[in-house]
Design a protein that fits this description.
single chain, elongated, two-stranded antiparallel ribbon, mainly alpha
Length: 102
């Protein structure tokens, strides 16, 4: 980040104003924390800045499940799903995005 800020979308003016990119890193962390909190993978207290992992977040981390997949599961999961509904939900996950059907 410090060696090549342009590769991370930081322009020269921003680099001059914030040579250590502290503000950029802070915004990056806050954006990621809010996204993970929305996916119910962590509990993020925006007021004091604390992060607490949830069981869902630990499980997703252990099995390398992307947070976009967890968001899909959170949106589509219900108590009364048929087998076809479950397969359709799993098929929408990000991990299957690059598999080609022949």
């Amino acid at each position: 980040l410090k060696m090549n800020p342009l590769a991370y979308g930081i322009n020269y003016r921003q680099k001059e104003l914030d040579p250590n990119c502290e503000q950029y890193r802070k915004e990056l962390i806050l954006t990621a924390a809010r996204s993970l909190d929305k996916a119910k993978m962590i509990r993020f207290n925006d007021g004091i800045g604390t992060l607490h992992p949830t069981d869902l977040g630990r499980t997703a981390s252990h099995y390398y499940i992307k947070h976009a997949t967890i968001q899909i599961f959170n949106e589509l999961f219900s108590n009364h799903m048929t087998d076809g509904d479950v397969i359709a939900m799993v098929a929408q996950s990000q991990e299957f995005e690059q598999i080609k059907v022949r």
